Amino acid sequence: MKKHLNTLFVTTQGAYLSKEGETVVVKVEKEVRLRVPVHTLGGIVCFGNVGCSPYLMGFCAEKSVCISFLSEHGRFLARVQGPVSGNVLLRREQYRRADDPKFSADMARHILTGKIANCRTVLQRALRDHEEKIDAENLRQTVSHLGRCLTALGRGNSLDNLRGIEGDAAHRYFSVFSELILMQKDAFPFDERNRRPPLDPVNCLLSFAYTLLVHDIRSALESVGLDPSVGYLHRDRPGRPGLALDLMEEFRPFIVDRLVLSLINLRKVQEKGFKKSESGAVLMYDETRRTLLVSYQERKQEEILHPFLGEKITVGLLFHIQAMLLARFLRGDLDGYPPFIYK
């Protein structure tokens, strides 16, 4: 079993990372702010004006610690990693299957089953825990509609058909998402999902957290030898990690959506932690970003019972386990890919 390791997020502008022995050293204005042993890290994510020494990059590549560079507001720029691991036969099988329309549709069906089922569970939990505070009838109708979408997935025989079902399910899910915001409703209005750029604080939080999720899933896929760029639901596009986006679908509701709702409802983030640019895009201030990063890391440390393995694991290991199950499916060791469905 892969050990659950932390991700080091560096958000302080002007920070510089270097190597000292077996540790990663973070300096700001030539003053040491942090020392982290490299064996405790699974990855490093640098936001904005953050520098790294060439020696550290080579050291991290040798130790299989990926370094990712994002813009200050979370847009992916580049990553530094060591030699790709994994059996070339596994990747060849991945590529062959991606060229098969029927297999791609079957794989997309597994992925979307996990996503829609988990969206449904998020709404069902809200009904169970907060029925008196929300428009319960509207949520019940949406839960029933998502159930019909799950049934429709079984009849879908093409990627276009499955994407249509997924689009309908996502629209209905996000149409009631504001009902799950129980506190600070005036400060955090939500009408619809929007991105590039996000136009309100809720979408800003969701988009940023989805970026973190893609980073972790991409690393998990590479760790088992799969190519994160070649997906089944998300088809090939230069610069897009299609398979990472595929696998992310089943984790969106369970990890990111619930995390964002908790941050708002527990008042860990507030309206003053956001700003609107001249273009209309809503951005986070540094303190809000740090709060989200810390909460995301804490979420990954929580324990759950994996529905397929029947074992207790940390949330952060889910990405590696699902990547491993996908690799086993492609090798022919499993009859199907078991998506993560949280109960």
At CATH level 3, the topology of the largest domain is Four Helix Bundle (Hemerythrin (Met), subunit A)
SS-based structural class?
alpha/beta
| Strand line-up across the major sheet | 1-5-7-8
* Largest sheet descriptor: 4 strands, mixed
What is the overall number of helices? Answer: 10
Beta-strand portion reads 15-25%
Distance between the termini: 23 Å
The CATH H-level superfamily of the largest domain is CRISPR-associated endonuclease Cas1, C-terminal domain
Range of helix content? 40-55%
Counted up, domains total 2
Topology as H/E string?
Answer: EEEEEEHEEHHHHHHHEEHEEH
> What do the pLDDT scores average to?
88
Alpha-carbon Rg, integer: 20 Å
Q: Count of DSSP E strands?
A: 12
> Uncertain segments of ≥5 residues (pLDDT<50)?
none
Based on the structure given, which CATH architecture of the largest domain is correct? Up-down Bundle
Bulk shape? globular
CATH class of the largest domain: Mainly Alpha
Task: Give a written overview of the molecule.
- The protein has 343 residues and is α/β, with parallel strands linked by helices.
- It folds into 2 domains: 6-80, CRISPR-associated endonuclease Cas1, N-terminal domain (Ribosomal Protein L15, Chain: K, domain 2); 88-331, Up-down Bundle (Four Helix Bundle (Hemerythrin (Met), subunit A)), CATH 1.20.120.920.
- 46% of the residues lie in helices and 16% in strands.
- The chain has a 4-stranded mixed beta sheet, sandwiched between helices. A 4-stranded mixed beta sheet has the order 4-3-2-6. A two-stranded antiparallel ribbon has the order 9-10.
- Helix 3 (101-130) runs antiparallel to helix 4 (136-153) and helix 4 packs antiparallel against helix 5 (159-175).
- The protein is globular.
